[in-house]
Design a protein that fits this description.
This protein is α+β, with helices and mostly antiparallel strands. It has four helices and four strands; from the N terminus they run ααββαββα. It has a two-stranded antiparallel sheet. The chain has a two-stranded antiparallel ribbon with strand order 3-4.
Length: 127
């Protein structure tokens, strides 16, 4: 049932409704991005297991939530490797010590593209 609002309080009521909607959207986005970050790290672990030997690199993929509750964009979820620099070398290739190059094995970019598409769909479905 619709609430009756006097005309002089209409702007306050609209502001209240928009603030409530904004907090709902913010909560949904933080939940969606956290879930996508965990899924992305898990996918990178699986892809790394298929493309590279050893468990050290595979186990290095993790997520982190950073941010400040007082900023406009409060939180960001980051997928990263605990072995800095190595993902870049493996993705794009590198020079060998004795000369020549090692070709890169693309494994991060496809996962990123799939996550971006899935994130867009999830956000549209929740809103």
């Amino acid at each position: 049932m619709a609430r009756k609002t006097p005309v002089d309080r209409l702007s306050l009521e609209v502001q209240r409704i928009l603030a409530e909607y904004g907090s709902d959207v913010k909560g949904n986005l933080s939940n969606i991005t956290a879930a996508m970050a965990k899924k992305g790290a898990q996918t990178l672990r699986q892809v790394s297991k298929q493309k590279f030997k050893g468990d050290k690199y595979r186990k290095s993929w993790t997520t982190d939530t950073t941010g400040n509750a007082h900023r406009q964009v409060a939180w960001s979820n980051v997928i990263y490797s605990r072995m800095p620099g190595l993902p870049h070398l493996l993705e794009h290739g590198h020079a060998r010590r004795g000369g020549g190059r090692v070709e890169g094995r693309e494994h991060i970019a496809p996962v990123e593209e799939a996550l971006v598409k899935e994130l867009e769909q999830e956000v549209l479905n929740k809103l």
